[in-house]
Amino acid sequence: MQPISLLVVTGALFVGTHFALSHPLRDGLSRGLGERGFLIVYSVVAIATFILMVQAFRGLPPEPPLWSVDGPLWGLASLLVLFASILFMGSLIGNPALPAPGAAASAQGAPRGVFAITRHPMMWGFTLWAFAHALVMPTPGQITLSAIIAFLALVGSAGQDAKKARLMGDTWRHWAARTSFVPFARQMRGTTPWGDTIPRAHALLGGILLWLAATWAHGALGYMVAGIWRWVG
C-alpha cells in the first residue's frame, strides 16, 4: 500500500469509528457496558485509531510543496490559528453542545462571545487549525491530514446538531435558531449585532496564551518556527 493510501485508510478508520461510536452504536454499548464502560471503550478506540493515523502521516516520504509559502501567508495562517485558539478556549465554558450537566441552562441564555460567532466554536477551531496547517505546509500528506480533521469536525458538528435536538428537544432547537453553524453568518445577514461576538475574557486571554504556547512549542520541538516567533524569535 502506498504511504498516502495508508494515511487515507487510517484516517477513514479514525473518522468512521468516531461516528459509529458517537451515534448508531452508542445507545446499545452504553446499555451493555454502562456509561463509564462506554467512555473507556470510546477513548481507547479513539486514541488507538488516532495514533495509527499519526504514524501513517509520519511515515510519509518527503514531499515537495504544491505552492510557495511566503511571509504574508505565514501571517494569515498565524492569525487563523490565533482565532481558532480563541474559539476553542471560549467553547470550554457555557457550551450547550458539551455533555455537561448545565447544558440546558446554557442553551437558554443569550448567545454571546464565541457562541454569537458560531454554536460550534470548538469544532470550527479544529477546522481553522487544520486549514492553517495546510496553508503553510502544502504537501499532499498534510493537505490530506488537514482534510480528515476538518471533515470530522464539520460533519461531526452537523451530527451533533441532530443528536442534541433529539436529546434536548425544544431547548436545543431554540438555541440553534438564535445561533449559526457557519461563523458570522447571522452578523452577515444583519440578524445579530457584531458587538455580541466580542470574546469573553477567558476566551480572549486563554486563546492568546494557548496560541503563544502552541506556536512556541512548534520551534522548541524541532518543527517549523510558527506564529509570532517567526518574527520575534
Features:
single chain, 233 residues, mainly alpha, 2 domains, 0% strand, globular, NnrU_dom, transmembrane helix
Please give the alpha-carbon distance between the first and last residues: 41 Å
Mean pLDDT: 92
Low-confidence stretches: none
Radius of gyration, in angstroms, nearest whole number: 19 Å
Write a structural description.
With 233 residues, the protein is an all-alpha fold. The protein has helices at residues 3-22, 26-58, 71-90, 103-108, 114-117, 121-136, 140-168, 170-177, 185-189, 201-220, 229-232. It folds into two domains: 1-61; 67-232, no CATH class. 71% of the residues lie in helices and 0% in strands.
Short characterization:
The chain contains 11 helices and no strands.
Question: How are the secondary structure elements laid out?
Answer:
Blueprint: H1 3-22, H2 26-58, H3 71-90, H4 103-108, H5 114-117, H6 121-136, H7 140-168, H8 170-177, H9 185-189, H10 201-220, H11 229-232
Helix pairs in contact: 1-2, 1-7, 3-6, 3-10, 6-7, 7-8
